[in-house]
Each structure stands twice: as structure tokens, then as C-alpha cells.
Amino acid sequence: MSLFKTRITELFGIKHPILAGGLMWLSDARYVAGIVNAGGMGFITPRSFDTPAAFRDQLRLCREQAHGKPFGVNLTLSSRNAHNELVPRHIEMALEEGVRHFETVAANPEPLFKAIHDGGGIVVHKASRIRYAQKAEALGADAVCLVGMEAGGHPGMNELPAFVMGAYAVDRLKVPLVIGGGIGSGRQIVSALALGADGVLMGTRFLTCHEVWAHENYKNHLLACNEDDSTTAMRTLKDTWRVLANDNARIVQQMEADGARSYPEFGKRIKGTTTRDLCYRGGDVQQGMVSMGPSIGFATKRESIAETIDALMADAATSLNRLKTLETPS
Ligand SMILES: Cc1cc2nc3c(=O)[nH]c(=O)nc-3n(C[C@H](O)[C@H](O)[C@H](O)COP(=O)(O)O)c2cc1C
After folding, report:
1. How many domains in the chain?
2. Would you say the CB of residue 147 lies under 6 angstroms from ligand 1?
3. Which one of 89, 198, 219, 309 is most buried, by most CB atoms within 10 A?
4. For position 330, what pLDDT does the model report?
5. Is the pLDDT confidence value at 143 over 80?
6. Virtual torsion, Cα 66, 72, 78, 84, nearest 10 deg
7. Predicted confidence (pLDDT) at residue 82 exceeds the cutoff of 90
8. Are residues 120 and 236 in the same domain?
9. Are residues 167 and 74 both part of a single domain?
10. For a pocket test of ligand 1, which of 19, 23, 48 has the largest count of ligand atoms closer than 8 A to its C-beta?
11. Which domain holds residue 67?
């Protein structure tokens, strides 16, 4: 059942106003096809694959598994400059394989927008402050997504939650607006739309779904987590990271408190490959910086992405009906 028609459902040609943001190491073909088949829009993260050829294989696999439905690619220009030189090649390959939907994250997205638009694509730009979103709009973003400080992963240095920024942003932006960070229920989707947003972006809520390839220990641990089980680190390096509150995150926080102020000082503790190898592959949830936000508390059972999205939309319908009962007769 399609409950809402918004500028985002129209722009992306999707059934529900739900975007699933790129997830480093995890948003592969199977995950993104799962999102797309369930009526949302998902984004493959090219950096998760060892070689450009492996990325291309994922694009082809996703096209097959999504039965020809459009799907997206996430393009992140890393603040640590890790392999940014590969990004133009990623755009080229995605366009060659028929991808036309992109999610970007970059301090200066102009070159990305140009390449995407020249190839006939559309782009939602993810920003952590309203003024960055306004800049992206001025540079030609087709839609913008504001992520609050409660978002899993790297929410930037902003200290405001998504619903505060969103409430301000609806009067300051013309392009379709998506908000993200801490969203894991249908009632929040209704709230976001009531606020004036055109859609939501979610990441954490899907981490325990069948389609995520990570170790069962990791998923079982996350299923037992609640809203208090995420924490932030690396703020002193101007690179805030919201993660699972595990032993490694606590050590990183202590190292910061003791004065560590550069990436090399943290060594393997903050390397993405550590998280991939020891936690996602190995199942040791106390290792690595494991991106995750407080919406994990909404994930309470093992289910597919389609079941999760159905549950979200059923909750949204309940929330909408409740609102209707509150209306006073005119
Ligand atoms: C495991 C994980 C990995 C992520 N990796 C990326 C990434 O590589 N690129 C990116 O733009 N955002 C990344 N994010 C952020 C998500 O795309 C999205 O903005 C965020 O999850 C939304 O907030 P929520 O987790 O509170 O729903 C990641 C988030 C998580 C939880």
C-alpha cells in the first residue's frame, strides 16, 4: 500500500518516501536491491569494494536483483581524502551501468553535481547544516537531506537534531527536503512529513535485516541494543563519529580525553577495515568503530527489509489515523 505521494516519491519514482543512506561496507547489491524492491531508494557505496571491477559487478548484480528498478549510488568525498581520486571513475561507471540516482556527501559537491547532471542523473545531497544544504541547492542539487547529530556514522560537527533543523529548513529551501538521523519508526515518518519534509533518510534501522551480510553476532547484539547504546567520538578531530558504544569506542574516547588529536595516533582502532574484518566479518562487537545511531532501539526482531518497511508504513498509518482523531470539526 502506498500511503504518501511527495516530491521525493515523485523525484525518485518510489512507493514510499524513504531513502536508505549509503552504508560503508554494508550497502551492497543485495541490500540496495532489498530497499528498492520494498519501495524505497537505496545507494551502493563504491568505496566498500576493493577494485572498480568489483564495484561494477555489484552494479550489475543490483540491477538484476532489483528487476530493472532504479537504484542509487552514494558518492562520499572523504574529509580524510581517502581515495577521493576514484570518485569521478565511480560516477562514470555508475552512469555506464544505467544508474541515474545519486546521494552525495562532500564539502564542495559542485564537480560531482556537474558530472551527475551531464550524465542525465539526479542527486540528493546530504548535509549536516542548513547553510550547507542551501549552498548545495544553489549549486544545483535536485534535493537535499539534512542529517541531525543523532545520525549513525558521521553526522558532522553540527549539534542540532534533525527535527530542529528540518523545522527551520522548510522555509529556507525550495528543493525537496529529506531529513535523517534517529528515524526508525513510522510515527517519525509522519512527523517529518507533517513538519514539511518530503521524505526521510534512514540507516541504522535496517542494520539487522536479513539482507545485511554482516555476522550474526553483530546483528543479535544490535537487536538487544536500545536508544542509549550509541555514543560519539572523534569530535576533537572535527570528525564526529556516532557509533555503537563498545569497548573500542570507549578506548578511543579515553585516548581523546588524554590528548590524542591526529588520526595516526588512534591507529587501527579507527580504521574502517578493522570494523569490517573483526566486527562485520568476525562477529566481535567490541572491536572497531561500528557506525550506529539511537534508532537501533526500534529494531527488535530479525526480519527482511520488506518486512521492516511494511512495519514502518503500518506504524505511519496508525500515527496518521491518530492525528485525524485529534482534528476539531470546522
Ligand atoms: C553502518 C553505517 C555506515 C555508514 N556509512 C556511510 C557512508 O559510507 N557514506 C555516507 O554518506 N553515509 C554513511 N552512513 C550514514 C547513513 O547513510 C545515514 O546518513 C545515517 O545512517 C542516517 O542516520 P540513522 O543511522 O540515525 O538512521 C553510515 C551509517 C551507518 C549506520
Report:
1. 2
2. yes
3. 309
4. 77
5. yes
6. 90
7. no
8. no
9. yes
10. 23
11. 7-211+302-322
- C-beta of 17 in contact with ligand 1 (< 6 A): no
2 within domain boundaries = no
What sections of 196-246 are H helices per DSSP? 216-223
Residue 80 pLDDT more than 80?
no
User: Is the Cβ atom of 76 under 6 angstroms away from ligand 1?
Assistant: yes
- Residue 23, ligand 1, Cβ within 6 A: yes
Cβ of residue 26 lying under 6 Å from some atom of ligand 1: yes
**11/70 same-domain check:** yes
Q: Looking at the structure, tell me whether residues 268 and 196 fall in a common domain.
A: no
- Which numbered atom of ligand 1 lies nearest the CA of 294? 26
Q: Report the atom number in ligand 1 closest to the C-alpha of 20.
A: 17
Check which CATH number belongs to the domain holding 60 and give it. Answer: 3.20.20.70
- Residue with the smallest CA separation from ligand 1 atom 20 is 203
**Is there a contact between 203 and 180 (Cβ–Cβ < 8 Å)?**
yes
Do 53 and 125 share a domain, yes or no? yes
Q: Where are the alpha helices (DSSP H) in the chain?
A: 7-12, 29-37, 52-65, 87-96, 110-118, 130-138, 162-169, 186-195, 216-223, 247-257, 263-266, 272-274, 305-326
Residue 252 belongs to some domain of the structure? yes
Identify whether residues 11 and 156 lie together within a single domain.
yes
Among the listed residues 17, 8, 305, the one whose alpha carbon sits nearest the alpha carbon of residue 188: 17
Q: Tell whether 188 and 244 lie within a shared domain.
A: no
Closest atom, ligand 1, to C-alpha of 22: 17
With a 6 Å cutoff on the Cβ, whether 148 touches ligand 1 is: no
With a CB cutoff of 8 Å and minimum separation 6, the contacts of 220 are none
Q: What is the pLDDT of residues 192-218, one digit of tens each?
A: 999 999 999 999 999 999 999 999 999
**pLDDT tens readout for residues 224-263:** 999 999 999 999 999 999 999 999 999 999 999 999 999 9
Q: How far is the CA of 321 from the centre of ligand 1 (A)?
A: 31
Ligand 1 atom 10 nearest Cα: 22
Residue 297 lies inside a defined structural domain of this protein: no
pLDDT value at 58 more than 90: yes
Alpha-carbon distance 4 to 191, whole Å?
A: 13
Please say if the pLDDT value at position 284 is more than 90: yes
